[in-house]
Amino acid sequence: MTAPIDLDQARRAKRLRDAGAQGAGGASGSSDLLPVIKVVASELPRVVDEAEDALIESGAAVFTRAGALVRPVVEPTPTANGGLALVAKLKPLTADSLADILAQVAKFQRFDGRAQRWVNIDPPDKAVAILLSREGRWRLPPISGITTIPTLRPDGSLLDEPGYDPATRLFLMPDEAVVMPAIPERPSRAEAQAALALLLEPLQEFPFVGPVDRAVALSGILTAMLRPTLPSAPCHGIRASSAGTGKSYLVDLIAAIVTGRPCAVMAVGRTEEETEKRLGALLLSGTPLISLDNVNGELGGDALCQVTERPVVRVRILGRSEVPEIECRAAVFATGNNLTLVGDMTRRAVLCRLDAGVERPEQREFASNPMQAVMADRGAYVAAALTIARAYRAAGAPRVCGPIGSYGAWSDTVRSALVWLGEADPVASMDIARGEDPERAALSELITAWGEHLIEGAYYATGDIAAAAQETGTDGQPLRPSLREVLMRQAGKGSAISTRSLGRWLTGVRGRVVAGMRIEMVADEKRGNRYALCKAPEEGR
Questions:
Q1: Under a CB-based contact definition with an 8 Å cutoff, are residues 385 and 218 in contact?
Q2: How far apart are CA 75 and CA 175, in angstroms?
């Protein structure tokens, strides 16, 4: 039996869709038809309630996000080919912008004692300020993101009606320059293969190292298309050994399909806190793509890991003291020469490697112009990506891949659809990243040296470990050079091993399994924590 229809929600959704079709500023109409709000001293709560009622009833595109009221806006932005692309984002409302919208959806009046009648006034400043400050009490709907192209809901249905979609909390502001072909409701495998062939055309001349790298590029296209309705998705790293190989261009090509223009980039901050604030500002705006450009070296950090793995995160925002909760609906990319994923990032990113095999890759000549091809028929590429995802679902979503932690929904749509069509598994690139992880390499070196020079299963204080590593023979040479070498690199201070630094490092790597072994810790506040090298439990036990 189907669930009863919520008529109020249905009517409201229609008003919001209509508002999206008209524009995102607000709902305007004849002033004679607007609700009247009587402003009376000592009745501010009622005035504010009625003002919010007017916003809701009018279907004005005003929403809640991360502790603020926001509205969808669009800005024409120049593209590389001299045209204009419609760039959509979420903009926090100020007192002035909220007053502007309120004046469009309601008529405010106060009683004029001299004239003995009600007269029209502007929305009262105090009422506007109170409405803006009612975090936690708003009845306005939450918004998770904004898009200018159709996407798929989690149930496989097509989200293509302009305006607010209650099921996904997304706001669709269609780019009228995009001509969308029909997307079959239940595409066949043959139709999916034709769609895949179209997506492969602009990728033909990229110097992918192997099939897995090409699969990661395809995954980037599908992930960027479907990310607004996925709870999480891994970062897509693009790496080459030299500049000019096409790393940023590949991300620009993906962005052109999704947004109609090359991708705006973000530099990684000098500190993790600075990076977190930059990420927070982009997430708050509802940007569909985040590109960390020119990450030459190591990429990791708690904030970036959380943004790729968690549906909702708390991040610092530039210019704000609070740490609000934000829904993550952005596809994250990172490019860099010799980009290396470190720590937890090795299991939160897929890696695409490019290698042109020439000294000056930027001087290569190409037979085609991929960006021009995409921009000439952008709707076809959007439809192709959606057709692939829909076809895999229509085929019964056959199980072709194993599980992958927090990215189950992504694996069941993007990853599995590509493998189903015969592409390599993009997740295979994680093995490469893990093998190159300097943190894992250091831990592997420690485990080997510990096994050679200390007793397996015995617990040691950091002072005992440092003493064993620094012990010398009669000739003054270290008795356990391999152990001393790895500990000096990780916890050395001058010519000695810092027990405090050693404790921090061992605490940070405890529990991580390498070659069937791991470091375990016993907390001891009085005598200091103690550590042991132990066999990891067998899987499933």
A1: no
A2: 11
Smallest CA-to-CA distance from 380 within 257, 249, 261 is with 257
Neighbours of 455 (CB within 10 A): 11
Q: Which of 279, 287, 213, 282 is nearest to 246 (CA)?
A: 213
Q: What is the mean pLDDT of residues 43-49?
A: 96
φ, ψ of residue 215 to 5 degrees: the values are -65, -35
Q: Is 130 left (phi over 0), alpha (psi -120 to 50) or beta?
A: alpha
- Quote the pTM value: 0.80
Question: What secondary structure letter does DSSP report for 317?
Answer: -
The DSSP annotation for 50-90 comes to HHHHHHHHHT-S-EEETTEEEEEEEEEEE-TTS-EEEEEEE
| Cβ neighbours of residue 402 closer than 8 Å, sequence gap 6 or more | none
Q: Cβ-count burial of 288 within 10 angstroms (0-12 exposed, 13-18 middle, 19+ buried)?
A: buried
List alpha helices for 377-496, DSSP H.
Answer: 378-394, 408-410, 416-420, 429-436, 438-453, 462-470, 481-491
Assess contact for 268 and 275: CB atoms under 8 A: yes
Q: How far apart are CA 196 and CA 420, in angstroms?
A: 11
Q: Are 413 and 392 in contact (CB under 8 A)?
A: yes
Sequence-distant contacts of 94-99: CB under 8 A, at least 24 apart: 95/125, 95/128, 95/129, 95/132, 97/71, 98/62, 98/69, 98/123, 98/128, 98/131, 98/132, 99/123, 99/125, 99/128
- Residue of 164, 124, 162, 159 whose CA lies nearest to 144: 164
Quick one: what percent of the chain has pLDDT higher than 70?
Answer: 91
Single out the residue of 415, 153, 378, 169 nearest to residue 255, CA to CA.
378
**What's residue 5's pLDDT?**
37
From residue 337, how far is each of 29, 271, 343 by CA, in Å?
55, 20, 19
* pLDDT tens string 209-227: 999 999 999 999 999 999 9
pLDDT, average across residues 74-80: 72
pLDDT at 13: 52
CA–CA separation, 239 and 350 (whole Å): 11
More reliable by pLDDT, 269 or 143: 143
